[in-house]
Amino acid sequence: MSSHFYEVALYGEFFSKDLKAIMNRLTLNCESAEPIHFVEGLYEPMYAQAQRDASSEPTYLRAKKELSDPAASWTLHSYLKPESVRAHPEATVRPWATVQVIGDALSFASALGYIRRSQIFKRGYIFRRGLLVIQMFQQEQVDAKTQVPIPAHADTLWEVEVKTASPTRNTRETPLQNAVDAVIEVQILMKGLLDLRRQDL
Questions:
Q1: What pLDDT score was predicted for residue 3?
Q2: Rounded Cα distance, 137 and 141, in Å
Q3: Is 76 inside a domain boundary?
Q4: Stretch 44-55: mean pLDDT, rounded?
Q5: What is the rounded CA–CA span in Å between residue 165 and residue 182?
Q6: Which residue among 10, 39, 107, 171 has the highest number of C-beta atoms inside a 10 angstrom radius?
Q7: Residue 113 near residue 45 (C-beta atoms within 8 A)
Q8: Is residue 119 situated within a structural domain?
Q9: CATH number of the domain enclosing 59
Q10: Rounded to whole angstroms, how far apart are CA atoms 200 and 89?
């Protein structure tokens, strides 16, 4: 059994016309739901290209902060390559480490030798179901002058991430298969409305 922590996830997307039906089905089958509005930055090591040239996958960092809560702190988590489809054909399983950062996560990432590759604003909803969180959001554009996010156009695609709420260790007491089964349950639950699938990012 591995001592690593893992994230288990499935992904999907849908058009706005299906929002109400998908919201209703998730609300009926989850313990809670609330709106979310957050900013997420993707950081890569300064020498990421050299690592890729040497056929070595760089370790990415994601910095995330909820914008609706002024007291919210940044969360940083490492973003590692998913395990092979042969090992986990039903869901995306990747090693995962996370850390809460007091103060400026961006300076912290920079001090670790990382540079920001992209920044995305996302607005939508988060549902909680057992050991899972289900995020449903639209990406917002940013005003070039003010750097303030602009609400997404009504036709913007909705993205869905069904994943473990916290890092999961593969032990005898908590086998990773429990988390895989939990995301597959949501996949079956949403069948006919939303196609959730494994994704190699």
A1: 59
A2: 13
A3: yes
A4: 84
A5: 12
A6: 10
A7: yes
A8: yes
A9: 2.40.320.10
A10: 11
CB 86 within 8 A of CB 65: no
Using alpha carbons, list the distances in angstroms from residue 167 to 6, 16, 77, 164.
Answer: 5, 31, 10, 7
Provide the domain limits for residue 39: 5-189
Q: For residue 194, is it within any domain? A: no
The mean pLDDT of 62-85, rounded to a whole number, is 86
Q: Are 98 and 74 in contact, with CB atoms under 8 Å apart?
A: no
Query: Which of 105-114, 132-141, 157-166 shows the lowest per-residue confidence on average (mean pLDDT)?
Result: 105-114
Distance CA(126)–CA(107), nearest Å, equals 28
Give pLDDT tens digits for 144-188.
888 788 989 989 999 999 999 988 888 888 889 999 999 999 999
Q: How far apart are CA 16 and CA 116, in angstroms?
A: 30
Judging by beta carbons within 10 Å of its beta carbon (0-12, 13-18, 19+), is residue 67 exposed, middle or buried? middle
In a domain, 197, yes or no: no
